[in-house]
Amino acid sequence: MKKSHFLYFILVSFTAFAQQYYPASGNLNIFSDNPERFYVYLNGELQNSESKTNVRIENLNQRYYNVRIVFENKSLKDIINKHVSVIANDGATFEESTYKIKVDKNKKMKLIYFSSAPIFPNYVPASDVFVIHEQPSNPNIIINNGINININNSKPESRDNHKKSIEKRCPELNSKDFEIAITTIKKESFDDQKLSIAQNIILNNCLRTDQIAQIAKTLSFSQNQMKFVKSAYTSCTDPKNYYLIKDIFSFAVDQQYFMNFINSKN
What is the pLDDT of residue 161? Predict the structure, then answer.
């Protein structure tokens, strides 16, 4: 009995922590699965003065960063990724984002998304990780494709207002890239794999309501469709039309659940 009480206490404590802790910044981890050492440039600024194979950058408070990887080996071409994110799929919560440098089938170096996780205070990285403590950026400055845009806000943003203000700070997926994305999703055999790709797409791009609906239709199970459209809301460029997605659901109970979700956002 005492053991069960103890486990219950741990569970309640962890749940309370998850509900109350909202980190003010995110962390970016970049590692290489090969021996090639590299330098990281974030929005044009060099982060590590010595080449490393595992770099961690803390205290990042923007949604997207332009990342450039320069290898110590000059024969290797630089990697450029303009939309690396430290924001979770809910569009508001900062997280631990991890990217991996790997060699693709064409023997070219690529920087690919690897994983994400919640941020925990007092986390201690492994000894082989080179850690940079970034100075938090001015919250009134947005980096948009490398261009600084000043925004005049006299009052600090609440959590809800902050969530709304960052909804449109990502590049809208153009028609050509969208068709490529749809084709990539459809090639997968299992619904969970399709969902994973779809969620990665909205992590780094903004989409119109009709595009989000098209992606949702590629998913076979209603629970995965619901999970995706809820995650995609903060990446939508025309949220006033989001109610139109209701029609992708076959059952009235799913349609009502979705409309309740929309109403909670208004």
Answer: 44
* Cβ-based neighbour number of residue 210 at 10 Å: 11
Q: What is the spatial distance between Cα 82 and Cα 123, in angstroms, rounded to a whole number?
A: 27
Single out the residue of 217, 168, 210 nearest to residue 195, CA to CA.
Answer: 217
Considering only CA atoms, give the Rg of the chain: 20
Report d(CA 204, CA 215) in Å as an integer.
15
Answer whether 140's CB lies under 8 Å from 153's CB. yes
Residue 7's pLDDT band (cuts 50, 70, 90): very low
Q: One-letter amino acid identity for 234?
A: T
**Stronger pLDDT, 152 or 119, i.e. the higher one:** 119
- End-to-end CA separation in angstroms for the chain: 46
pTM of the model: 0.48
Q: Tokens standing for 252?
A: 């009235």
Among residues 31, 211, 236, 184, the alpha carbon closest in space to that of 113 is found at: 31
CA atoms of 218 and 196, how far apart (whole Å): 12
Mean pLDDT within 67-92: 87
**Structure confidence by residue, pLDDT tens digits, 218-234:** 999 988 899 999 988 88
